[in-house]
Structure prediction request, 397 residues.
Amino acid sequence: MKIGVFTDSFRPYTSGVVRSIEIFSREYNARGHEVYVFGPDYPLLHPPKEEGVFRFISLPWPTMPEFSLPVPISSQLGSTIKRIGLDIIHTHSPFLLGRLGGRAARRHKLPLIFTFHTLYEQYVHYFPIAEKTSKHVVQSIARNFCNRCSLVVAPSQLVVNYLQNIGVEAPITNIPTGVDLEEFKDLDPNWLAKNYGVKPEEKVLLFVGRLGKEKNVTFLLKSFHAIQDRYPECRLVLVGKGPQESYLRKLSQQMGIQEKVTFTGVLPRQKIVHCYGSADLFVFPSVTETQGLVIGEAKAAGLPVVAIRAFGPAEMVSHGEDGFLTDPSPSSFTTAILDLLENKELYDRMSKNANKNVSYISSAYCAEKMLKVYQQLIDQKSYAPRKKLYKHKKVYK
Prediction:
């Protein structure tokens, strides 16, 4: 099977979308399938040339120079698709290259799949226009794009419900991005101590993700400040970077906790897994995730999780079994963290369950499920239908 992936972000940029593409692609390749990625170039990052990766001219985003916007124009796209002999097109954005992929699917009569990775209206604060109006526009664009696809993939059942509530009538299936369990063998429990000076007696609270407004890291810092009063032998490690990094550093200084908060910046994959392996607890305050892949990764390392009950995390954490889901209040969040820090029996039980439960979303299992859907669409010759063809809501199982 030859799979064309159209995406508005790809490595060396790091994000949940990029990680999802990498995980599925590796599983597909291991099974003898071929993946071709059509994505942006990053003029400031100078990505290396890779076989099977086609880069589009891109413009750095003014406020996030590490991110680039691809220009969805190519005179060679049609001939390239024919030469490769694509069987299916899978888009990971309803904008720019995602829309280009949609047009290509219709032109070449190929099935079109779209994974709804992001609650796009939660990101309009990055656009310098009226935020309320932008939310409606962005939601409308996403809904209309979904309704022109053969199938929409939702990473969680709550996202399936969300899509149906906003008017998506295209078939929908729930397939999360799986966790590569092989990565989490032979972890170094002392990695953070050796590389960032974490003291042996300190309990490490770990966050992995973009340092952007939508990730709610300000909430996390405020919660950690409250925890320090009751449990001072504790450290917060933030892995990632983003537009709020400078603000968050200043905020930690204003709170007087800067000596207890470690900013690692972006780390290569082989180092991130050791961050999980040398932490004690994973804390995740975001309320905009459609899945929260990092939660699954934390569980693969045996970390109990404390997260706010919202969309993806609500399905990634089994409340009271391998972590806690809280309401979006600092008191609720900090209480859950302190319960785990102060109760070893509870912590050990949840750690064991976390490692056990993550096996249900292994990357191998999720890839097999996606490949089965691909083959069904190819066999049905279900190429990108128009919106008017949808008369009934339908959910693929």
